[in-house]
């Protein structure tokens, strides 16, 4: 047998997630991966690396629980929120039997993780206002074990209406989990639904340190849920999912000083987002959608042409599946000024 014949058919036919790094590019301005422009310094103690790490380091769990305002038994840490998605699907869906449901345009890994695990994916697009289509979701819930929703949503940047999330939780009670992906919630913390964990035991929330905490390279994510769900996920997580240096750095980031620094940097990025939104919004033929994270979705008359020109000139942005739209991460002020000036120059030619 060939290697391809030995491999699972599902995997051979899979189109992998097209991450920013896989797409590549060459340039000086990278505003394509929703990364933070801040490179913060940390100290690492290299002693003890000959020993395995704890599966769920108490100091890290306690630090994030304190930050999120939940109990430690409601927190699981993993290799980014992506592993959280994978664990939830593996733990709660039977292959070739159960389904997940997700609402595009949204983060692509929900569908890819389902496909990898031979789980059917039902698609209910967001409304034209990029909100949950509750009636359509209600009609598609047969055999659905997990509903994924993202708020702020990637790539649109908008928040889901809270009353719609509550309505979704009501309709899925005793039927399915509802996973709210809050990877970008640190830019709009007051809009988190973590308070609903006390009312809805089937609610799961995904979080990460990759965005606001400027630790994309650390790969440290969190799942917030009731104790029963966390205990189920702990049955299937890898034995040593959190490297010792990851714990050390994450705990420093979640310290009072680290949280204060993050709060300041979030305010800076929100100011830069407002600068980009105002500047782009003044250009003819450009629509800038309201954003509540560290990126903006922007519609142009000919997005493909503009994207390619930017790419060729070393300004790397992100194509969007939404027609004639480009997603622009919010960088430092210099990056934002140069990107805005280049786009203005191209559109005014």
From TrEMBL:
Q: Which cofactor does it need?
A: pyridoxal 5'-phosphate
UniProt cross-references to NCBIfam families, sorted A to Z: hisC
Lineage of source species: Bacteria, Pseudomonadati, Pseudomonadota, Gammaproteobacteria, Vibrionales
In this chain the Aminotransferase class I/classII large domain maps to 48-341
- The UniProt record lists the EC number as 2.6.1.9
SUPFAM superfamilies, A to Z? PLP-dependent transferases (SSF53383)
What positions are modified (N6-(pyridoxal phosphate)lysine)? 211
- Family (UniProt): Belongs to the class-II pyridoxal-phosphate-dependent aminotransferase family. Histidinol-phosphate aminotransferase subfamily.
The record ties this protein, via InterPro entries, to: Aminotrans_II_pyridoxalP_BS, Aminotransferase_I/II_large, HisP_aminotrans, PyrdxlP-dep_Trfase, PyrdxlP-dep_Trfase_major, PyrdxlP-dep_Trfase_small
Say if the entry is tagged with keyword Translocase.
no
Q: What is this protein called?
A: Histidinol-phosphate aminotransferase
Question: Which reaction equation describes what this protein catalyses?
Answer: L-histidinol phosphate + 2-oxoglutarate = 3-(imidazol-4-yl)-2-oxopropyl phosphate + L-glutamate
Keyword Transferase: yes or no? yes
Instruction: Mention any Pfam family matching this sequence.
Output: Aminotran_1_2
Keywords, A to Z, come to: Amino-acid biosynthesis, Aminotransferase, Histidine biosynthesis, Pyridoxal phosphate, Transferase
| Subunit note | Homodimer.
């Amino acid at each position: 047998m060939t290697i391809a014949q030995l491999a699972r058919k599902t995997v051979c036919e899979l189109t992998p997630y097209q991450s920013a790094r896989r797409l590549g590019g060459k340039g000086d301005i990278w505003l394509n991966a929703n990364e933070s422009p801040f490179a913060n310094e940390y100290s690492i103690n290299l002693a003890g690396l000959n020993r395995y790490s704890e599966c769920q380091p108490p100091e890290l769990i306690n630090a994030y629980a304190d930050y999120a305002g939940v109990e430690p038994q409601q927190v699981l840490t993993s290799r980014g929120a992506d592993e959280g998605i994978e664990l939830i699907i593996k733990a709660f869906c039977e292959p070739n039997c159960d389904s997940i449901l997700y609402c595009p345009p949204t983060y692509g890994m929900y569908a890819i993780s389902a496909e990898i695990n031979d789980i059917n994916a039902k698609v209910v697009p967001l409304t034209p206002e990029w909100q949950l289509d509750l009636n359509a979701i209600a009609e598609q819930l047969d055999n659905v074990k997990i509903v994924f929703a993202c708020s702020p949503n990637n790539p649109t940047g908008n928040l889901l209406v809270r009353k719609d999330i509550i309505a979704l939780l009501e309709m899925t009670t005793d039927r399915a989990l509802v996973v709210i992906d809050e990877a970008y919630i640190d830019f709009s913390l007051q809009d988190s639904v973590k308070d609903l964990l006390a009312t809805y035991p089937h609610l799961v929330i995904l979080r990460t340190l990759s965005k606001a905490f400027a630790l994309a390279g650390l790969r440290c994510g969190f799942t917030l849920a009731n104790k029963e769900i966390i205990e189920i996920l702990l049955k299937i997580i890898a034995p040593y999912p959190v490297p010792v240096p990851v714990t050390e750095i994450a705990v420093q980031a979640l310290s009072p000083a680290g949280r204060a620094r993050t709060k300041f940097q979030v305010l800076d990025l929100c100011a830069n987002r407002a600068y980009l939104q105002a500047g782009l919004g003044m250009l003819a033929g450009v629509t800038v959608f309201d954003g509540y994270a560290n990126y903006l979705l922007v519609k142009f008359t000919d997005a493909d042409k503009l994207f390619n020109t930017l790419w060729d000139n070393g300004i790397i942005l992100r194509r969007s599946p939404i027609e004639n739209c480009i997603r622009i991460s919010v960088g430092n002020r210099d990056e934002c000024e140069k990107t805005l000036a280049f786009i203005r120059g191209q559109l005014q030619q």
